[in-house]
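Consider this:
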Amino acid sequence: MDATKQSQNQVIWIVGGSSGIGLALAEGLLEQGCRVVVSARRIDPLRDLAARFPEHVQLVPVDVTEPKTLSDGLAMLLERWGQLDRVILNAADYAPMSLDDFDAALFERLMRINFMGVINGIDAVRGHFLAQGAGEIIVTASVAGFRGLPNAAPYGATKAALINMAESLAPEFAQRGVALRVINPGFVRTPLTDKNDFEMPGIIEPQEAARLIIRKLNRSGFELLIPTGFGLVMKLIRILPYRLFFALTRRMIKK
C-alpha cells in the first residue's frame, strides 16, 4: 500500500488547526482524501474548510488548557469515525521578549498553552492508543527548542521542554506499539512569526511546511525536521561550545 492510500484509511486529528501550519496540514491531508478532525478554540475560521470537504472533515472545538474539552473531542470524533490513528498536537502561542520587557506572566501563559496543552492532548489520547496497541502522537515543537536564542526565552523554553518530554516518553510508548514523534520546524510564515521584527533566515510558507511534513509522515523516525537544510544548521549551532555560541547570540541582540 502506498503512502497516500495508507493515509486515506486513517483518521487524523489536528489540534491547533485554525491557521498557519495546522490549517495548511489539514488542507493538504484533505486534498489527499484523508479523514481529518480539526480542532481549535475558534472553529468559525474553519467553516470554509468544512464546506469544501464535507465528507472528510469534522470540526471539534477544544481549548488545550482545558483537559475536558480534549477528552470530549476524542469522544466526538470516535462517535463519528469509530477510530483515531494519528493526532498532531500543534496548538501554540508566541510573543518575543527582551530583558527590558521581562514578563513572568508571559512565561506562565506560553508554558500553559505550548507545553501543558500538549501534555493535556497526550493524556486525552494515551488510553485509547495504548488500548489498541497502535497509533501515533505527533508533537509540534521547534528548532527554537535546540538552544536559547535572544528574545525567545519564554517560547524557546516551552519548545525545549516538549522535545525533552518526547525524548523521555518515546521509548516507553514504542514498547506498547505507539509512536511519539516531534516536528521541529524552522521559520514558517504564520500570524505568530509575523510578530518578529527581524529577518528570519530560511523562512517558508505554511503550505510548503505542510507539504514537507506530509511527505515525511509515513516514514519512520522520531524527528521531522522542516525544512531539513535550515534544521541541520540549527543542529550544528546546538553543538557549539558556549564561548562560540554566546559570541554568536550577542551579535543577534539589538543595541
In short: The chain is about 50% helix and 15% strand. Residues 145 and 160 are 4 Å apart (CA to CA).
